[in-house]
Design brief:
- It is a single chain.
- The chain has helices at 2-33, 39-68, 72-78, 94-103, 115-126, 129-132, 157-197, 203-222, 252-257, 271-284, 296-309, 366-374, 397-408, and strands spanning 226-231, 242-245, 262-267, 287-289, 315-318, 344-352, 379-385.
- It starts with a helix and ends in a 7-residue tail after the last helix.
- The protein is built from 13 helices and seven strands.
- By secondary structure, it is of the alpha/beta class.
Length: 415
């Protein structure tokens, strides 16, 4: 009896491994050939219908849950904009308190009288615009992921069954396939970089490296079930300038590299990620630097200037915010990337958090961030190529004076 059960279990595991490997191989082949069968679009549409059904069930059960479970903060967690501190009707009256201070004698002063003012000041500090840019973006409705359903244990039987089926599908069907695709994509990326780095410089090396870059990043994109929509491709970056984009996650480079070839400018990592950076830099002209080394700044700018002058090298891609933001706002750009006298091609990336949170800040480590994306429903985003921007030429007062003198007195030599 035990032998029969063991043989059945082995057969199930065997066919399960064959199925997962076959699906991963088919998706990798699809990425190499750049074939779009519409499977991901259909998958996204089906997910939207499931989310809509779940949201309707939550709204139907809302009155019952409020009477029984009383999850006051749960409804706030599901709101699109969750506040860090809740309003308190008793203490949130700073103007009345201020008037009271003017008429209250010093002998009647109590230390608790200043608490409303302290609470208001703490709210202004905690909920400032910059801090909100580093918090995970809120969702308009539940997407059946644990992060957006804090505090719930039971809503309805049908919704619980759908949630469990989705959890099983994401962890036991999607995750193994995505993991195999991610490993294959990284191996192909390193091998192609090693191959291209040993080719002699010329048009052949440029063509092979550009093709290898697109293929490997398309495979890595399929490891995330990436569904990206690119708008206004006529404004796509050319080789004569630099491309700047908002920064939400390290996968921003994957999203953009599926549609164009770029040379990355970023911080040198360590470990396996640092090894991959060094290998691909040998073949694809990427520029890495140490943020702690102040002398690297001038060297990076000089390398960027030389890079732009070479027509055989790809467009430079930089993220001038200098940090990952939660995709609801854009921080002030650092000026280092704009010191080049070359066209600037802006790109805007907008992720849809309903299918998966791409923000690298919602998780404490890179491993947790990768795990979150590999076990999410999908990564869905829109990319807008904005019109090219050219740096304005600033003419100083001394230059205007010399120009005026030269025009009025042609006898003055110009050299």
């Amino acid at each position: 009896m035990l032998t029969t059960a063991a043989s059945i279990l082995v057969a199930i595991v065997k066919y399960y491994a064959i199925f997962e490997s076959s699906v991963a191989f088919f998706i990798i082949l699809e990425g190499i050939l750049n074939i779009h069968l519409g499977i991901r679009s259909t998958y996204i549409k089906c997910l939207l219908k499931v989310f809509k059904f779940g949201n309707n069930r939550v709204e139907v059960k809302r009155p019952v849950i409020e009477l029984t479970q009383k999850p006051e903060r749960v409804w706030n967690a599901m709101a699109a904009e969750e506040k860090v501190l809740e309003d308190d009707e008793v203490y949130h009256k700073p103007l009345e308190v201020e008037l009271k201070y003017k008429t209250t004698p010093p002998s009647d002063f109590k230390l608790q009288n200043v608490l409303p003012l302290i609470q208001t000041a703490m709210k202004d500090i905690v909920e400032d615009e910059v801090t909100k840019a580093f918090d995970a973006e809120g969702l308009p409705y539940w997407n059946m992921l644990t992060r957006t359903n804090k505090g719930y244990q039971y809503i309805s039987f049908r919704l619980s069954v759908i949630w469990f089926a989705g959890w099983w599908f994401r962890h036991f069907i999607l995750f193994p396939v995505r993991f195999m695709i991610a490993i294959a994509g990284q191996i192909l990326l390193v091998l192609s970089a090693m191959l291209c780095s040993r080719l002699p410089a010329g048009k052949v090396k440029t063509a092979i490296s550009r093709y290898a870059t697109k293929v490997t990043f398309r495979i890595l994109a399929r490891a995330l079930s990436l569904h990206a929509t690119y708008h206004d491709r006529k404004n796509m970056a050319k080789r004569d300038g630099i491309c700047v984009a908002n920064h939400t996650s390290p996968i921003d480079v994957i999203v953009l590299s599926c549609d164009n070839v770029y040379a990355f400018v970023g911080q040198q990592g360590s470990g396996l990620f640092g090894f991959i950076q060094k290998e691909i830099a040998k073949a694809f002209s990427h520029i890495w630097f140490e943020r702690a080394e102040s002398k690297d700044r001038g060297a990076v700018v000089a390398r960027m200037k030389d890079h732009v002058k070479d027509p055989n090298k790809p467009t430079i891609l930089i993220f001038p915010e200098g940090a990952c933001v939660n995709n609801t706002s854009v921080l002030m750009f650092k000026k280092g990337g704009f010191e080049l006298d070359s066209p600037v091609y802006p790109v805007a990336i907008r992720y849809n958090p309903v299918f998966g949170d791409a923000f690298w800040g919602a998780q404490p480590t890179m491993q947790a961030h990768i795990w979150s994306m590999l076990t999410s429903w999908a990564i869905v985003c829109d990319v807008w190529y904005l019109p090219v921007m050219n740096k304005l030429v600033r003419i100083t007062h001394s230059a205007l004076f010399m120009t005026s003198v030269l025009i009025n007195d042609p006898s003055i030599p110009t050299t």
